[in-house]
Design brief:
The complex is a heterodimer of chains A (526) and B (246). Chain A is 75% helix and 2% strand. Chain A is an all-alpha fold. A two-stranded antiparallel sheet of chain A has the order 1-2. A two-stranded antiparallel sheet of chain A has the order 3-4. In chain A, helix 2 packs parallel to helix 4, helix 7 packs across helix 21 and helix 13 runs antiparallel to helix 15. The longest helix of chain A is centred in the first third of the chain and has 32 residues. Chain A is globular and about 70 Å long. Chain B contains eight helices and no strands. Chain B is mainly α and 246 residues long. In chain B, helix 2 runs antiparallel to helix 3. Classes of the chains: A mainly alpha (526), B mainly alpha (246).
Chain lengths: 526, 246
């Protein structure tokens, strides 16, 4: 048995688990344990993959032994392995967290029986999107995770959820159609959908056609990643879902979009002419998102807006296309998945204790529930980028990359990044002031519900994970740096899928400073 | 690569109609638009397959003359996916119709609050003032007190400023409210408006005061000929979180 077969497990296991839990729909305890077991297995597999990939290089699995041109390939390089590792940890922690919540409230209204299968299908979709070696498989992965997310968002079918899900479903439908049309266009222009083959063939295309294809794909991924002009759907739809569901959506689904953009801008269209467009979108996302967050008075909405805002940081790193920018982005993605999910879990705890997430009605939680205060404070400071947390390290990395980039747009974005970080702190301080200080209303004092230990434990585990990201920042940054140089060079990916000979035919690669070079090391002018 | 003009035209017509329908406000029309759009894009895949040739069976002829089978495989997958998503979309539209009496895509609660805030400012005739003085000292203190939770919720803001109260807010008057039923008074905005599809009934003033139990049989009777109307009331009551009654 070869190690490549491991690549199929992050997709196969949750799908099998989903089928199994659906059969066990009358035994919710067993369902839960099957789901936990599945996700633990995926977490273990991705750790093994991460170790193997960092030692031996890119892994490729050709399903059914079809050639990459005709069949489906699953590819894992360092970037994929890291994303799988973080996502499987987050999904596991959130599942454990939600086990206490579904038991403790609304049991009679929420159809718990479909929660676990759908959740596992979502995990399968996310893993598939990360592992996909061709565009069409990426599309299928997106569809699997979206279909699961529709169901999770409308869980229970209450009026507010149907209302919120309607917008979400329509926007997602539109982005899927755009993605599908883009795939059709890519296929007619190049005759393939395999990412490695595309990397070879797109290099030779006319720049005009290249740009049309790139923009179509970028719009499709941008909607999923909630980049500013395409982000309006997110704060409308996420906050109404149950807290654990929102945590997974906020942490993972947008990052799948960012991952796709990362691949698009390095493997398929290296250092393309639209990088300035990406930087502009990053600046607008950062500003508009954080202004929205400052103006909100509902905890979950504030967090949703900071999510939109902080997508800008990752886009900033991608837009620079330097090695340092990419490395910082990869680190930032790992950090942000963890911290954003943790914050939504903490918001769930606050809702559990206070009965609402409306900041005007909350108050005095610092005295009433000091545990929640700590569990909220740590990830909140992390999000705002206060040293020594991982958010600070990621932001410093991005700003340093911006300084090295040394262009007007870079300096401009550094200024906006710092301002956004400050305003994030302001938004967080506002939450802290309203929810944790102030005199508690009699209603909250009277509502003395015990905190389930499982929920507290799962949130604490997430915080520990983010602290691990902080303490081990050195090794993780080195790993991210290697990942960045390998995706910028492009040859490791292509040669692993198609062989060394094909990789020699790659026309462009990107050097450390983000310049596009042709085969002889000459800079290419647009 | 030679491209069939008729296929291109078909794809164009499908996509045009699809986009037009997607811009509508009713969910069922949007789903129809999605189906048309999806079909148009599927035709694009068939165009991408190039010139039709021999059926692609192993050993049945020269591979160079065969049709490229890959796009068709992708189209099949895409059809299956859009079938599933369409089924979900129709279920969502049906559920919205059960809950609200129509399946219009709602405005975001927060957007409407912002809009109302602007309207209120305009009616206070503060637009002549520079923006810094637009807030009087009194209203500023009031806002502060409200933010500290010292005052009860402003009654001219029935939505509240959060999502917890969003569950009780009815839809805006929309196309489905044919006959131009007057917009319900603010005090009465507590429950999704079951009777909104019929003009002028129930009377606007009594809506807020009348208990739900009194209204429900009447609605059921009026809408009795429509299948699904009876259970809709019950499901609604079951799923409105019970907060408005509390």
């Amino acid at each position: 048995m070869s190690i490549e077969l491991l690549l199929a497990l992050p997709v196969m296991l949750p799908l099998a688990g989903a089928a199994f839990t659906l059969l066990l729909r009358h035994y919710s305890r067993i369902q839960l344990w099957v789901a936990i077991l599945t996700l633990t297995a995926i977490f273990t597999v991705s750790m093994v993959l991460g170790y193997y990939v960092s030692q031996e290089g890119v892994l490729v699995l050709q399903i059914g032994n079809w050639t990459p041109q005709l069949g489906i390939v699953l590819v894992a390089d360092r970037l994929t392995a890291l994303m799988l590792l973080v996502s499987s940890f987050v999904t596991l922690a959130v599942l454990v967290y939600s086990s206490a919540q579904t038991v403790s409230e609304n049991t009679e209204r929420t159809p718990v029986a479909i929660y676990h299968p759908t959740y596992l299908a979502l995990v399968a979709g996310v893993s598939m999107a990360f592992l996909a070696g061709d565009l069409f498989n990426l599309y299928v992965g997106f569809e699997v995770l979206l279909a699961a997310s529709y169901v999770l968002l409308t869980l229970g079918g209450s009026a507010s959820r149907v209302r919120a899900a309607t917008t979400y479903v329509i926007v997602s439908l539109l982005s899927s159609i755009i993605f599908l049309a883009a795939i059709a266009a890519v296929y007619s222009a190049t005759g393939t959908v395999n990412l490695a083959e595309l990397a070879l063939r797109l290099d030779g295309l006319d720049p005009g056609i290249r740009m049309v294809l790139e923009l179509m794909l970028l719009v499709a991924f941008g909607i999923k990643a909630a980049i500013f002009p395409l982000s309006a759907w997110l704060p409308d739809s996420y906050p109404t879902a149950p807290a654990p569901v929102t945590a997974v959506f906020a942490g993972l689904l947008t990052k799948v979009g960012i991952y796709a953009i990362l691949r698009l801008e390095t493997l398929l269209f290296p250092a393309s002419q639209i990088s300035n467009l990406l930087l502009a979108a990053a600046a607008l996302s950062l500003l508009i998102g954080i202004f929205g967050a400052v103006a909100q008075t509902d905890l979950k909405r504030v967090l949703s807006f900071t999510l939109v805002s902080h997508m800008g940081y990752m886009l900033f790193g991608i837009g620079m296309v330097t090695q340092m920018g990419m490395a910082a982005t990869i680190y930032y993605v790992a950090h942000h998945i963890t911290v954003q999910s943790t914050l939504f879990l903490a918001a769930g705890l606050i809702e559990h204790r206070g009965g609402t997430t409306n900041l005007i009605k909350l108050g005095g939680l610092q005295k009433l529930a000091p545990v929640i205060a700590v569990l909220f404070f740590l990830p909140a400071m992390n999000l705002a980028g206060i040293p020594p947390f991982s958010g600070f390290i990621g932001k410093v990395g991005l700003i340093e990359a911006g300084i090295q980039y040394d262009r007007t747009s870079g300096w401009f974005l550094i200024a906006i990044s710092v301002l956004t970080s400050l305003l994030t702190l302001y938004a967080i301080a506002k939450i802290w002031n309203r929810a944790f200080w102030q005199e508690p209303s009699a209603e909250i004092v009277a509502r003395d519900v015990p905190l389930p230990k499982v929920m507290v434990g799962a949130t604490a585990a997430m915080i520990t994970f983010s602290l691990v990201l902080t303490v081990l920042a050195g090794p993780i940054m080195t790993y991210a740096d290697n990942a960045a140089s390998s995706i910028l060079e492009r040859t490791p990916y292509v040669s692993a899928v198609l062989g060394d000979e094909a990789a020699g035919e790659l026309q462009y690669r990107i050097d450390d400073a983000g310049q596009r070079l042709d085969g002889d090391g000459q800079e290419v002018d647009e | 690569m030679p491209v069939s003009l008729s296929l291109l035209l078909i794809a164009g017509v499908f996509i045009t109609c699809g986009v037009y329908l997607m811009l509508e406000r009713t969910l069922s029309r949007i789903i129809l638009g999605f189906v048309l759009l999806g079909n148009g894009v599927n035709v694009l895949f068939i165009i991408a397959a190039g010139k039709p040739g021999l059926p692609p069976f192993e050993g049945s002829g020269d591979p160079a003359e065969m049709t490229d089978p890959l796009p068709f495989a992708m189209v099949l997958t895409a059809i299956v996916i859009s079938l599933g998503i369409t089924a979900f979309g129709m279920a969502l539209a049906y559920r919205a119709w059960q809950l609200f009496g129509h399946d219009e895509v709602p405005d975001d609660v927060e957007d409407r609050r912002v809009l109302r805030r602007r309207r209120r400012r305009t009616t206070e005739e503060t637009e002549h003032l520079p923006w810094s003085q637009a807030l009087t000292e009194e209203s500023r203190r009031g806002a502060l007190a409200q933010s500290q939770g010292l005052l009860a919720h402003e009654d001219d803001d029935p939505l509240g400023s959060d999502l917890t109260s969003a569950e009780d807010v009815p839809q805006d008057a929309t196309e489905a409210d044919e006959g131009g039923a007057p917009p319900p008074p603010r005090a009465g905005r507590r429950r999704p408006d079951k009777g909104g599809t019929r003009p002028g009934d129930p009377p606007p003033g009594g809506r807020g005061a009348a208990p739900q139990t009194a209204q429900a049989p009447q609605s059921a009777q009026d809408m009795g000929s429509i299948p699904g109307a009876g259970p809709a009331t019950d499901t609604d009551r079951e799923h409105t979180d019970g907060r408005s009654e509390a």
